[in-house]
Every structure is written in structure tokens, then in C-alpha cells.
Write a structure and sequence with these properties.
The chain is α+β, with helices and mostly antiparallel strands. The chain is built from twelve helices and 15 strands. The strands form five sheets. The chain has a seven-stranded mixed β-sheet with strand order 1-12-7-2-3-4-13, with helices on both faces. It is globular and about 50 Å long.
Length: 341
């Protein structure tokens, strides 16, 4: 493979990872400083999102963020975040080792059948609605044995506002896609999506092969396209459009009460310093799907997933991912089932 092609794929991968890291990082990447206080005040702080010390995993050498995509906001307004009835559509663990110039994002399928503290076995996504960010954090720590340092959530309804603030986002599809459940259709090639259509694109999964994993891949494609547009001259050179986007993005984000803008800034600067060639994105491997009562669930490959978490705690994750072919490459990202397929 040509060096330029490898570099392009790494750059695409980096954009996807940075896009996933709670979209407010964009305000730092594009060098906006004049309204940081405004954006910071727009970010909701969630009390108790990270559990108390007793009974938690030990601190590992590194920084771990639990990142989720959800529908936690009420009436699409700041100050209205709630957990009852909310769904964790995307669950990701960002790991930045202390002694390595590397970063990792591990996606946890929302339908994973796991142990929820105090509730028995259930889909991991159910922890959010049942007990809020804290219970979801506890479930991830129970599953992984990895200590979560910070929590960040992006409300998916905010995607609609952010997309419209940008004047829409273009998604390049490798083939035409038809969702028979809702009658939605996207043609092969470039599709320009407004906010409402983008929200359908990232949230729908019934018309996808692989269901949960298929939706994860769609969201990766969308976040990459959004990050590319925000980083482009068209938006960076238009202060009004950029400000509208950043206000929408910061209003769509909530973090744990101990997370400051300084911490988020330090995280982003660290990721930028690490560079595209040393970033990696993966999903926990699935051994099988099945049914628990009337619910379709995902059974993780516990042996391989356990190895991932062990390497997060003790180091050596890069080699383990290579050994088990776990890293997502840009060319492997799909967006749905071909029409008529």
C-alpha cells in the first residue's frame, strides 16, 4: 500500500476518534479561544456520574473517559438533562496510557449482555435509564475492571442542531442504502444531509446488517464527515457559522461534575500530540447474538474482551489488538445494507 494512502487512512481514523471524544473538542482543534467561557458555561455538569471510591477498580497508569451518545436532554435545552427513560445508544471507553504516546477508543455494543451492579444481568445500555450515568459507569467498571476517571455524554438530538448550524453535512456512501422498516433511501455517492436526516442516519439500526455494530459504524462515518467539515476553511473562515456550531455542540454535551474545561483542553492537546499514526479505534468482539426472553442481545467474546481490558490496566494493548485483528480500518467501515440486498 502506498505511503500516501496509509497516511490518508490514518488521518481519517484520527478525525473519527477525535469526533467521538465529546464533540466540544472541536472548539479547541479549530483554535477558538475568544468564547471559551461561554461554551464552558453551556456544558452541563452531572453530579454523581463517577462513583465514590469504595469498591472501585484500582487506578491504572493512564486516563480513562467513558463517552456515551444518548437522548438524555429534555426539550433540547441546556439544564434539562435527565436519565429516566434515556438510552445509551453509543458506549465508548477512551484510554490514554500514561507512558505511551498512544490513544485507544473501545466501543462497547449497547446490547451487550452483562452484569449490572444491583440488578443482575441485562443489556449494558439499560443501566443508564435504570440508574443514570453513575450506574452505567459502575456497569462498565464491573465489566472491564478498568477505573473510569471522567464521564462525557453527547445528546444525539444535538446532532440535528449541530448539523444545521454547519449548513448540512455530506456523507459519501459506497453503495445505495435502503431501510425497508422506514422507507428511507440514500443513493450511492455523496448525500447532503440536513439535521433531521442526519439524526435518522446515526440512530436507525433496524435496517442494518449487524444491527448494533452496524449503527456504530454509521456513527463513525457521520462523525468523521462532521469533523472534516468543521476543520475545513468553509466553516473556520465563517465566525458566525462556527459560533453557532460550537454553541450547539457545547449545549449538547454533559460531563461529570469534576471535569473542567482545562481538563478537556489538556485531553485534546494530548490527543493531538499523540498524532494520527498512534491512535486506534475498536469494538469489543462479539461471540454470538441471541435472545433473553423477548429481547435480542449480544454475547461478547469474554476471553478476547477480557484480554483487551487487562492490557488497558497493565499495558501492551497495541500488540494485543494487532494479534487479534481488532482495530477498525477506514476502508472496513460500512454504512448499511445495499438496496435490494
Amino acid at each position: 500500500m502506498a505511503r500516501s494512502e496509509r497516511r490518508r487512512r490514518r488521518e481519517n481514523l484520527a478525525l473519527r476518534i477525535l469526533g467521538c471524544c465529546a464533540l466540544v473538542v472541536v472548539l479547541l482543534l479549530v483554535g477558538v479561544a475568544w468564547r471559551l467561557d461561554t461554551y464552558d458555561r453551556n456544558i452541563e455538569r452531572l453530579g454523581g456520574a463517577v462513583p465514590e471510591e469504595q469498591g472501585r477498580p484500582g487506578d491504572d497508569p493512564g486516563e480513562n473517559w467513558l463517552l456515551i451518545g444518548s437522548d438524555m436532554r429534555g426539550e433540547s435545552a441546556p439544564g434539562r438533562w435527565r436519565s429516566d427513560g434515556a438510552h445509551a445508544d453509543v458506549i465508548m471507553l477512551l484510554h490514554v496510557p500514561e507512558e505511551e504516546d498512544r490513544a485507544y477508543v473501545v466501543a462497547i455494543p449497547r446490547d451487550s449482555w452483562v452484569e449490572i451492579p444491583g440488578r443482575g444481568r441485562d443489556k449494558i445500555a439499560e443501566a443508564l435509564g435504570a440508574g443514570g450515568p453513575r450506574l452505567l459507569t459502575e456497569a462498565v467498571e464491573e465489566l472491564s475492571g478498568v477505573r473510569v476517571d471522567h464521564f462525557a455524554a453527547v445528546d444525539f438530538a444535538g446532532f440535528e442542531e449541530m448539523t444545521d448550524a454547519l449548513g448540512g453535512v455530506a456523507i459519501d456512501l459506497p453503495h445505495e442504502v435502503y431501510d425497508p422498516t422506514n422507507g428511507w433511501y440514500w443513493e450511492a455517492g455523496e448525500n447532503h444531509m440536513d439535521g433531521a436526516e442526519a439524526l435518522r442516519f446515526v440512530r436507525e439500526r433496524k435496517g442494518l446488517d449487524g444491527s448494533d455494530t452496524g449503527r456504530i459504524k454509521r456513527q463513525q462515518v457521520f462523525l468523521r464527515a462532521m469533523a472534516e467539515k468543521v476543520a475545513g476553511e468553509e466553516v473556520r473562515g465563517d465566525p458566525r457559522r462556527l459560533d453557532a456550531f460550537l454553541l450547539a455542540a457545547s449545549g449538547a454535551v454533559a460531563v461529570d461534575e469534576d471535569t473542567t474545561m482545562g481538563m478537556m483542553r489538556a485531553l485534546v492537546l494530548r490527543l493531538v500530540g499523540i498524532g494520527a499514526e498512534n491512535t486506534a479505534f475498536m469494538s469489543l468482539p462479539v461471540e454470538a447474538t441471541g435472545w433473553e426472553g423477548e429481547r435480542n442481545v449480544v454475547y461478547l467474546d469474554e476471553e478476547v474482551a477480557g484480554g483487551v481490558f487487562e492490557r488497558i490496566r497493565e499495558g501492551g494493548l497495541a500488540g494485543y489488538m494487532a494479534e487479534h485483528d481488532l482495530e477498525h480500518e477506514a476502508e472496513r467501515i460500512e454504512t448499511g445494507s445495499p438496496a435490494g440486498g
